[in-house]
Amino acid sequence: MFDVGFSELLLLAVIGLLVLGPERLPKVARTLGGLTRKARSSWLNLKRSIDTEINAEELKKPLKKMQDEVRSAVGGIDQQLKKATAAVNSSVGVKSADSPPAATPDSVTPGSATPGSATPTSATADSATPDSATPGSATSGSATPASTSTASATQPADT
Predict the structure, then answer these.
(1) What is the pLDDT of residue 128?
(2) Mean pLDDT by 10 residues, the chain (159 residues)
């Protein structure tokens, strides 16, 4: 852009010598050299800082991309976990946390069970199978005496 050759510098030195004189020319030359040095170093520092910022932004892009991928993966896992929890809760019969709590077996009284409900104290004779019933496992009100006797009759004797 600025193409300064030796002839232009020589012309400037002669003009400076004539205008400033031999006593002030060395001081002015030192001052101009110092200002030029400061301007050049400031320019280089600015250029380095801009390059550093550009490199930092280029390094942040892959990190940002990875962070977005991790967030989407965590979101997908969270959704799958919620679906699985809902599926397990629906198969077990547990209602979601937003609904009122269901009656627990401790809060059900023996006479309050409705016909056909599946609580531990209201098992019917059909639910006692020969494989699962043992002579000492019948609880009061859970199986009829006839089903207990047939269950003990089908069990092999302990040897």
Answers:
(1) 46
(2) 82 89 89 95 95 88 90 93 92 65 51 49 46 48 47 53
CA distance 57 to 51: 10
pLDDT at 101: 53
CA 113-119-120 angle, 5° bins: 120
Angstrom distance (rounded) from CA 104 to CA 55 = 63
**Cβ contact 127:144 at 8 Å:** no
CA angle 106, 107, 108 (to 5 degrees): 95
Tokens of 50: 């801009």
pTM comes to: 0.35
**What is the residue-wise DSSP string for 33-98?**
HHHHHHHHHHHHHHHHHHHHHHHHHHHHHHHHHHHHHHHHHHHHHHHHHHHHHHHHHHHHTPPPTT
Percent helix, strand, coil in the chain (nearest 5)? 65, 0, 35
Read off the DSSP letter of residue 142: T
> What are the CA-CA distances from residue 138 to residues 62, 68, 77, 121 (Å)?
66, 59, 45, 11
